[in-house]
Each structure stands twice: as structure tokens, then as C-alpha cells.
Amino acid sequence: MGVTYREHPKGSGVFYVFITQNGLRKSKKVGTEKAAKKLKEELERKISLKEFSLTRKKEPTFQELSTVWVETIVENVNRTTTYQRYSQVLRDYVNPQLGAEPITKITRGQIKTLLLGLKKDGASRSSITTVKNVISGVFNHARDSEWIRHNPCDGILKGLKMARQKQIDTDPFTDAEKDVFLETCGDHFSDMYPFFFTAFQTGLRLGELLALEWGNVDFHGGFLVVSKSFRNGLESGTKTGAKRYVDMTEGVVKELKKLRLQHKKEALAGTATDLVFHKNGAHITQNYARRHFERILDKAGLRKIRFHDIRHTYASLLVSKGANLKYVSQQMGHSSIDITLDCYSRFIPQKGSSEVNLLESDRQPSASYVRVDP
């Protein structure tokens, strides 16, 4: 039992005071040796007068720390949709199994059992990864709060052979299927045609389309400025948090100019809005857009795909027609070209062994070159 101080690391000029009492040990970074010595003497005085005593803090449960993490970190740093999703994961999947456990007592084996149980119940790789990320986030918070030294989630999916696949599954339409969809939309759901045509020709995410305003449309430059997303009645930043510029095809420019003219007429009649796509002057909801998407699929007799596969269709068709992967990555707003490669490399046109002939495509044969067989 006692109070000591020392320089750490040696030669740094930074001093720590160490207190050992009641089987507990605590350290405090002070600064100079003079300040450390002064604090040591003050603590010794308080201990002798029984005015100071180290006590063990009550160890929090996983649920207690998860509540702090999701309410103070996730809610303030991430998008609203991420906060809602993580809260739901904790409520439905994690806390029922781990919530009552003290944070330091939870083992890697318990986490493995939880994740394997989800896999057995048919959860997708993506869903299991989300659950793992939520659990890991809580443990990172526990580590930062000095309750634990190591995060038991580190590398756990790799050990369970559930790490992210190099090739990401996508289910895009072919060019012909896209044409059938848009033709059916124009014939039977003409009010939604500009929306779906823009979706197929720009690759914007659903929330980004719904948040698009006329101020984001540069007809002169031929591009869209994508900076917001709309979901669950709220606007937020894009998925990556970054603004990007997406080139428009001539068809999109033409279609949006027609829509702009229509909006000006609607404004004269009393329905004014800055939104490119709207319903009675307000945002179109994601459910409204998805319902129309499913109705058009049924009417056209096309196979069922997700709305998000419109985005995959855009990218896969660009790649299959020879577009540069870096350009596609920028258009899609991917944080790394590796994501684009993982998703769409199978759509890159294969030229076979003829590619090697590019080495000699500009070379003229030399008249002085004579091959001598051994």
C-alpha cells in the first residue's frame, strides 16, 4: 500500500503517480516531476486522515455499456438509419443473450455461439456481419473506457469462415430486361417514368434519388450533385458522408428538362417544390417507390429483383460496355475502387489470349532480325 511516482517512459519528462490500496491500483498522468511529487504528498496526507480510499467501481453489464455506446456515440456520429438499425440489432439479437453478462466476463466462445446460431437460423452473411459489428462496437467502447484490454470480436468472422466474400453477389438486369421495364413503366406508370429512367441511367441510391433537388441538377455541365439522402421522413448525408458528382446521359438531361418544365406549370397551379421527384410537393417515400417498382415488374412479367439492383444494373452495364473501373467507382460513390472490383469484375469483357498481342500492336518487324534454330 502506498503512493509512488515515476517518469514514464524514461527520458520523456512525463511523470505518473501510482496509488496502491485495498488490493487496487490506479495511475494518473501528472506531467512534471514537481507536480507529481506534490500530488504524492497530498494523497499521502488524505490517506492518513482517511479522506481518500480506492474503491472498485461496479462492473457494467454488456447492456449497460451498449446503451451508452448507441446513445452517445452511434446516434451522434452515424446516420439516423444506422442508429435505428444498431438499436434494433441490440434489442432483438444481442442483449437477449449477452445483455445481463458483466462486460469483462463475456467470452469469445459466447460470441461465436451467438453468431453461429444466427447462421443456423438462415441469417445472411451481411446480417451476421452487422450483428458482429454492433457487438464489436460495444467492446471497443469498453476498451476505450478501460474495462477490458482486448476486443474478443477481433477476427472472429474469419475464424468462423464467414468473412466477407471477395466476389459480392449482385443480380442486375440485362440491357434487354432494363428496356422492357422502362417501356412498361412508360406505358402504364408514366408519372413514375422520369424517376425510374433516372435511377437506371445514374445508379443513384434510392434515398439519394428521393432527396434530389433542382439545385443539384446542372444542365449546363451535364451532371448531378449528390449530397443528401432521404429515408424514414428524414434527410441525412450520403452513405459515405461525401458529396459526389454524377454524369448524366443525354437521355437523362432531356427527361429532366421535360420534368422541370412540368414542375414550373405545377408551381403556377399552386404546387411549388424544389424536389426533382415528389408527390403533391412532398418527398416520395421509399415504400411508395418500392411498391411501384414491384408493380412494374409484375406488369412486365420480369423476374423479381431488389430496387437496389437498379444500381447494380447501371454499374454492370457500364463495365460490360468497357467503361473504366475508376470512372464507374467515382460515379457510384464507392469509398474504394476495390469495392467496385469486388462487385463488378465478372462483367469486365473477356478478350482471351488475344490480349497478349497488345505488346506488339505498334511494333514493326525488323528486316535484320533472323531466327536461328538450334
What's this model, at a glance?
The protein is mostly helical and 374 residues long.
What can you tell me about this protein's structure?
The chain has 374 residues and is mainly α. The chain has three domains: 2-48; 62-159, DNA polymerase, domain 1; 175-347, Intergrase catalytic core (hpI Integrase, Chain A, Orthogonal Bundle). It has helices at residues 33-48, 62-77, 80-98, 108-120, 125-144, 156-159, 175-188, 193-202, 206-211, 250-268, 286-300, 309-320, 325-332, 337-344, and strands at residues 2-7, 15-21, 24-31, 217-218, 223-226, 229-231, 234-236, 244-247, 278-279, 282-283. The strands form four sheets. A three-stranded antiparallel sheet has the order 1-2-3, with helices on one face. A three-stranded antiparallel sheet has the order 4-5-8. Helix 13 crosses helix 14. The longest helix is centred in the middle third of the chain and has 20 residues, at 125-144. The radius of gyration is 30 Å and the shape is elongated. The N and C termini lie far apart (88 Å).
Q: Helical amount among residues, as a percent range?
A: 40-55%
What's the rounded overall pLDDT mean?
87
> Biggest sheet, strands in spatial order?
1-2-3
Question: Care to count the β-strands?
Answer: 10
Structural class: mainly alpha
Nearest-angstrom radius of gyration? 30 Å
Determine the CATH topology of the largest domain.
Answer: hpI Integrase, Chain A
Task: Name the CATH architecture of the largest domain.
Answer: Orthogonal Bundle
User: Roughly what fraction of the amino acids lie in strands?
Assistant: 5-15%
Q: How many helices in DSSP terms?
A: 14
Shape estimate: elongated
